[in-house]
Each structure stands twice: as structure tokens, then as C-alpha cells.
Amino acid sequence: MTGPEPVEVEVGLGARSYFVRIEAGLLDRAGKRLEGFARNGRLVIVSDETVWALQGERLAAGLAASSIEAVPILVPPGEGSKSWAGLSALVDRLLVLGVERRDHLVAFGGGVVGDLAGFAAAILKRGCHFVQIPTTLLAQVDSSVGGKTGINVAAGKNLVGAFHQPAEVLLDPLCLDTLPPRQLRAGYAEVVKYGLIGDAGFFAWCEAHGEALVAGDLAARQRAIAISVAAKAAIVGEDERETSGRRALLNLGHTFGHALEAETGFSDALLHGEAVALGMALAFRFSAERGLCSDGDAARVAAHLASAGLPTRLADAGIEAEAGRLVAHMAHDKKASGGRLPFILARGIGEAFVDSSVEMDEVERFLAAEAAQQAGRP
Ligand code: GLY
Prior knowledge:
Elements: E1 7-11, E2 18-22, H1 30-34, E3 42-48, H2 49-64, E4 69-75, H3 84-96, E5 104-109, H4 111-123, E6 129-134, H5 137-143, E7 148-153, E8 156-163, E9 168-171, H6 181-198, H7 200-215, H8 218-238, H9 254-263, H10 272-289, H11 295-307, H12 323-331, E10 343-346, E11 352-355, H13 360-375
Parallel strand pairs: 2-9, 3-4, 3-5, 5-6, 6-9
Antiparallel strand pairs: 1-2, 7-8, 10-11
The structure holds glycine (GLY).
Glycine (GLY) binds next to loops.
């Protein structure tokens, strides 16, 4: 094999520790990694129809090379599968297939498949094991690592779920070759996020190499994935259940982003990663307005995200909502408590922190000014 050297990152969680293996072509060798998890020569794979059509043959052949039969369960692509109905249908199928507590499911797909299959694994017969093989950039650098699993319900996204850590995570950067470019750019926002949270040097690397990464440079992809996963593993290792505030840093851009997604009906009009990009640009401008970071830092963040084709202004996302409506969406955020929300703000690039002192009317004034400024633009 030519290409970058494989990388392994440990998520250190005592008895629940596991490795994230990052290797170009890993899908073709998946059987070697998963041999110990197959029972009677079979592994149940939860995937979606699109991912399976594009990559299923590769995974099945990679398992067959180690005499493992892939038993796929395919769910329809999209958030709709991450629902009570989707969960119930999946669990019924798993029970019919005779999946047992000691078994390992394989979640093979993007964030929806990972969250759904992970949650099914958390509750099936009071919990079985699972392995993540994420196929989107967003899932590779964020949702497949750290054990957050769950579904969406009528009251909101991800409101029902469990922390359930995978037994192993296999990342093959070559999976990204079939990802639509818009999805790839959206996932890239989560890569940039790690630089903005705690690693100014990595943000500078993104400025230099982000374009190559988006264009398909394998070495840049592998490096960005490895650094992102290592950053996430360190945070999850310190604060698995988001109790100390450390893990909350991963929500940089997500509080603004969540309101934007709610405003666009969680539709394809604004992908999650796009909402996070715009949310991070807003969080930095809001931080600058509060005198926490420089206007220059906020401008640099927005310039880089924009150069990657990501939205950084409300108008870029076609959002003309009144600020009051956006703030009202925030009240439904699952992190809201006592009418307040913790905001992830920044003292500079790579210096994010949790600020629980933010008043919602201050946020509303800020968003109103953002909207007015953009409305006045040619
Ligand atoms: N995606 C945020 C977290 O895993 O905590």
C-alpha cells in the first residue's frame, strides 16, 4: 500500500477504552480487525441504502477475505431513520437475526447510522457491543468517537439516547472519495472546530492545507482526521459524560447552529456542518463584540470557513428570520437550563471556553445587528 502511514488513537476510558484506527484502504482489510468480533462467521452490519450501494461491496469483500459473512440491515438514508419508528424496526430485525448480548453490531455509514445503530446496541437485550465504521467526514472526526448515541423525537433532535462506547472505530479516509462535495465541506467545519477550540497551530495548518483536503489530497485528509480524532479522544477521556464542561467545548458553534437548523426545519437547506460553520463564525463575532477576542481573529475564522465554501453570515444560509425567533429556538436546546444556555465563546483562536453568563437578550441584540448589517448589503 502506498499512502500515509496508519495511525491509531486510543480513547482512554478505563475498562471502556478503545482504539480508533485510521488507515487508507482499511475497509478492504476490515476482516482482519474484526475477526475477534464475528460469531459463527457472521457480522451484522447496520448501514443505509446509499452507503451500502457505494461502499458495501468493499466492506463485504474485506470481511469475506477473513471468512466473515456480512449480514446487512439497510435503513433509508436521512434523519428520518433516527426515529422511534426507525429504532423499533431495527431492534426487531436484530432480534429476528438472533443478535445476542455478547455480539458486536457494525455501524457502517454517517452520523445517522452511527447514532441509531449505537443506540440500538445500547438497549438491545440491555446492551450489546458495536463497532463504528464511519463513512462521512463529519462522522469520522466527530460522531463516531465518544459514545453519544440516540434518536430524534417530536420535541427535538437527539433528545433520547445513551452514552454507549464502541468497541473499536475503523476510519478509512478512502470512503470520503464517494462523499458529495457539499457533505465533505460540511464535515470540514468540524475539523476546523478542533483548531478553534484548543489548537491555534492546527487552525493555521487548516488555513494552509484545507483547500487540498477538500480537493481530495489523501495525506491532508488523513492528517486532519488523525489530529481531530486525537483532540476529541483527549476531551472524551477527560469528560465522557459532559459533566465537567470540557466536553461541552465540542459544542462550539452548535448553540447558534442549532437555532439555525431549527429555523431551516433541520432540512437539507442547511446541513449540520454548515450550521456549525455559521455558528462558529457567529460565536467568534459575538466573542469579539464582548471584548473577549480581537475582531481580527473573528475575521480570520470567517475568512477560512468561507474559503472552504461554508456559510459565515445569516444571509449566506438564506436566513432572514427575526433575531427573536432564533433566540426562541435556542430555548429548546437540550442544554438549556433555567432559561440560560452555556455558550462556547473564545478568547482567541484555539482558546474556547464555556461562558454561562450570557443573557439571551444580549444574544438577540447581536443577531438583530447581524441580520440588519447584512440586509443593508448590496
Ligand atoms: N459532538 C459533540 C460530542 O461528541 O460531544
